[in-house]
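Morning!

As promised:
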Amino acid sequence: MNKIFSTRVERDLVGLIIRTYAFKSDLKIKWVRPEKIPCYKPHHSGDLVSMPSINKNQYLLEFSKSKELETANDYVKRLFTLEFNPNKCTQKLYIKQNTDKIKRHEYDGASIEVKLARWTGYIRAWQEIMERFPYNKRVKVNLKELIEKRKKHLRYLRKWDYKKFEWILEELNIVYKPSPTDPIPVTRKWSLEKLTDRYCEGIKQERLQELRLMFEREQPAFLEEKIRSLEFIRDEQKECGVEVTVTQQEIDSVKEKLDKLKLKKLEVED
Amino acid sequence: MALPAASKAYMLLGVCVPSLKQGASKFKVKRLELDVNLNMYFSKHEFLYAHDPTKLCKTGDIVLIEQLPQKLTRLITHKVKEVIYPLGDTTCPITGKKVVASKYRDHIEQVNKIYGERQNVFKYDEAPPRGWQEDKKDFSHVETYPKYHEDGSEQPYSV
């Protein structure tokens, strides 16, 4: 209870001394609100490539190995191509191609890599539909849910098998970014606070860099002075007959340092 | 208080969390705190920095950290002793075999061989060590943030 009471008093005191309400910063920071990107876009889903254009003269997946079609006439053959069939047949073929690339064995249909490849195929196909029909709500909902499901399973895979996780990202061309730990909506106040922090950090780094450069410029003169002083101390100690505390090794190491600095300076100038 | 603060204990087991500090790693350490009113323990997380010049531990690893005799900086109070459980590379403590979720890697490979393994299938022996996709396609080693400002520059860690 005492603790709570004391903090409240302190806060009140701060409020009395510094006026914090309706505070407006003097800094000339211009904030540009980022444009809102819909959740189903590749920017959020992490897909680096979109669905490629598929040759529509191919036969349907189910009839691709049919022997009867080989002997049929041209009209029948054309009727069994992707051109004269619904878009979902093209999607099916694309998903099959996607999964065939990374499946473990011929009968593999349920391993995590095949699942992820299949979902990736659907996501890319539906993203293309959303580009053409942005008001298709049914596809939009399914797409959003599938993107989140894929992300969830990528998260699990990362925990279970990191090497395979990285291999899958490479094979399927996906970027994995974890969600922020505390997802808060972007507001003007919060963004300006962040930008001010960044601005202050920038000033701090700039000044530190200036100070560093200044010290580095002064370094040769300082080392020369150090050599002179060390030699003077050594000579004085010898003359007075006191124990010599400055060794030649010490002086040589400083000289070596000075030579290195001069060489470095010459290299930079060249 | 039943237990001393985590920072005072000599050795601790912590989970490595994303941090941008160079030469050091950040750790989340879980401790149990006794609530004297309820007579019950509640978990409490503390964050510590440990000296790790070679970046031995990666995000998610469970690591044994040891207290330094003297503080290295204001924040760095510990040093990394050993990576106990690397993330995504689990070993069964009884058999010593590698495990993926609830299955042994050997068993998975044997099943694949029975069905007829394909050429371009993922192989653990040939896979590079963890971290080759960092900053390329895998951004789980950093803390992401919602994009709050449009300044034309590329912000790879923004969501």
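Chain A touches chain B through 46 residues (CB under 8 Å).

Hope this helps with the figure draft.
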